[in-house]
Design brief:
The mean pLDDT is 97. The protein starts with 7 loop residues before the first strand and ends with a strand. It has a 7-stranded mixed β-sheet with strand order 9-8-7-10-11-15-12, sandwiched between helices. It has a 4-stranded antiparallel β-sheet with strand order 2-1-6-5, covered by helices on one side. The protein is built from 6 helices and 15 strands. By secondary structure, the chain is α/β, with parallel strands linked by helices. It has 2 domains: 8-63, Vcp-like ATPase, Chain A, domain 2; 67-254, Rossmann fold (3-Layer(aba) Sandwich). It has helices at residues 65-71, 81-90, 108-117, 130-144, 180-186, 200-213; strands spanning 8-12, 18-22, 28-31, 34-37, 48-51, 57-61, 98-102, 122-126, 150-153, 166-171, 187-197, 216-222, 229-232, 235-238, 248-254. The structure holds S-adenosyl-L-homocysteine. Residues 76-79, 102-103, 105-109, 126-129, 132, 156-158, 172-173 line the site of S-adenosyl-L-homocysteine (SAH).
């Protein structure tokens, strides 16, 4: 696969550090007193070795989605890869699914949802902040190109969900309990509600609202602790530092009552 104009790439140095770049014909990338023309990257193969003007060597790759999420420009705080992965499986995002998401934020979760639903599915993303959705759309475009399976709605999801017969409602916003009633109407039977929240009081409120709605069962809350490892010849052990907390995932299924 060859790099194209407009595509997002990462330079990786010997220590494994990533430096992101969006390719643009005739531009020159400047880095720590060195340069490389974008035209030297465009047309090269994924994983190519490149040399900057003063001799530093880098590998240039198309980032994985997880790498892209960590380095892309942010409007709102993104959901980190470990939680994005869990959301896909606990929210059971499948090819062809109709998903309502709120809000789009920086587009990190949206990209994973778009991949999950594929070309036959659709992601309808509610967002109240136009400045955030602009950042998100740029992040999505530079990584995925044109996305015909994304619809952006500049509207407040607390006021309602306009769609019906939705397979999954996925929420990353501060007061998801204000969406439980709307989700109860918008979801098909067997549909799944999932929200991502940073604090326990929020979790208690959303679980209460799901119970009150009368249509949700199998309500579960989980969190994911990811521990990375240091693996060198004589020293194989967990890394000293880890991220202790990001957020809780609460999931529920709509059933006929
Ligand atoms: N999941 C996103 C981050 C979302 S941050 C990512 O991974 O990049 C939360 C977003 O919800 C913000 O962009 C905020 O503007 C939006 N938001 C907050 N309340 C909202 C509401 N009532 N309706 C629609 N969007 C809302």
């Amino acid at each position: 696969m060859k790099f194209a104009d407009g595509e997002r790439v990462h330079f990786i140095d010997k220590k494994g550090r990533h430096y992101p770049l969006t390719l643009c014909k005739r531009k020159v990338f400047q880095f720590s007193g060195e340069t490389i023309p974008h035209d030297d990257i465009i047309g090269r193969e994924d994983g190519a070795a490149v040399t900057f003007s003063r001799g530093s060597r880098f590998v240039v790759v198309r980032p994985t989605l997880a790498e892209h999420i960590l380095k892309m420009p942010r409007g709102a705080q993104v959901i980190y890869p470990k939680d994005v992965g869990m959301i896909l499986i606990w929210g059971d995002i499948y090819p062809g699914a109709k998903v309502v998401e709120a809000g789009i934020g920086s587009g990190a979760l949206t990209m994973a949802l778009l991949r999950g639903v594929g070309e036959r599915g659709i992601v309808i993303s509610y967002e109240i902040r136009e400045d955030f959705s602009k950042v998100a759309l740029n992040n999505i475009r530079s990584y995925m190109g044109k996305t015909d399976n994304l619809i952006l709605r500049h509207s407040d999801v607390y006021d309602g969900i306009g769609e019906e017969d939705i397979d999954r409602v996925i929420l990353d916003l501060p007061e998801p309990w204000r969406v439980a009633g709307h989700a109860a109407k918008a979801l098909r039977e067997g549909g799944i509600f999932l929200c991502y929240l940073p604090t326990t009081l929020q979790v208690a409120s959303v679980v209460e609202s799901l119970k009150e709605s009368g249509v949700f069962t199998h309500i579960e809350t989980i969190e994911t602790l990811l521990r990375t490892w240091h693996v060198e010849e004589s020293s194989v052990r967990p890394d000293h530092r880890m991220v202790a907390h990001t957020g809780f995932i609460t999931v529920a299924r709509k059933v006929r009552r």
